[in-house]
Amino acid sequence: MALHRVNTDDYQQQLDQKVARLRDAYAPYTALEPEVFPSPPSHYRLRAEFKMWQEGGRVDYAMYKQGEYKKPFVIQEFTVGSERINALMPPLLEAINASETLRKRLFCTEFLTTLSGDALITLIYHKPLDAVWEAEARALQKKLGVPILGRSRKQKVVLERDYVIEKLDIHGRTYQYKQVEGSFTQPNGEICRAMIGWAKSCCKDQAADLLELYCGNGNFTIPLAENFRQVLATEISKVSVNAAQENIAANGVENLAIVRLSSEEFTQAIDKVRPFRRLKDIDLDSYDFSTVLVDPPRAGLDADTCAMIARFPRILYISCNPETQLENLAALTKTHRIARFAIFDQFPYTDHTESGVLLVKR
Length: 362
Fold this sequence. Notes:
The chain is of the alpha/beta class. It folds into two domains: 8-41 and 188-361, Rossmann fold (3-Layer(aba) Sandwich); 47-164, CATH 2.40.50.1070. The chain contains ten helices and 17 strands. Strand 6, helix 4 (131-144) and strand 7 form a beta-alpha-beta unit. The longest helix is centred in the N-terminal third of the chain and has 16 residues, at 11-26.
């Protein structure tokens, strides 16, 4: 099924099939019925990237099937995209086609939007961006009322800002996040909110401390901090760490420290294999970690990190790839049992599903 146009009548059936498949896959490790978090059937995707198809003196939004990059599908509607994206697409395209400066050698357009209505548009070119382009782009920015960002080889032109501000209402409180263009953000806003809410519910009445690996911009970290005495979080991306620090301040969180370390480096640090200058202001021995939260990349946890987190009483493991999570569970369930199991339909109408498990020490 083409992602740009979906039949929402099929949604529940495809979700049921995913749930059945994952229930069977996780059966060796748990008999729990999964908690299922469905996506909105349409307009759920907050970010989108389109190739720009140039032909006959005009440009159109396009997508390609994998491996067939000379057969574009021109996009005329994008029902999986947020309503904000859909509202911006026609006037943006009209303005680009009315300006040779904006159209010429444009090869990609990216939209980044939020549930709270903010938006950012990035135009990516195979040409240097000069003062003439900047003047045209500023006029376009004023016309649309949306920040425009220009990119070319070794060039980034920020006309106003390179981020959006998201506001998420979770369990009666509103959290604010700076989401920087080019850095990781959850693509499905409602599922992101559901995942955070589920994680918070797994961490009620925790008097001790939380360790989080792969914390990104503080997406989970900030809401969970109120459930713990202290929180220590790690992230390797400098852009994400900087955004997280701003998000900590914006949300008034005072019991949370973020350090720029990979999970492998943190494992070496906590095992005292070697010191890290980035931890010079952190006293690891002062923490009493009752829970560790991991939300790793698709490759899952490496063996050393998996062994390290197995020492903790509680493991909250959010996964964007159930296959690698299952590989890790083969080791983790030797020391822990699964107390909760959740399925998050991040990408409807695809085979992709995300999962969460709460593991408790046996």
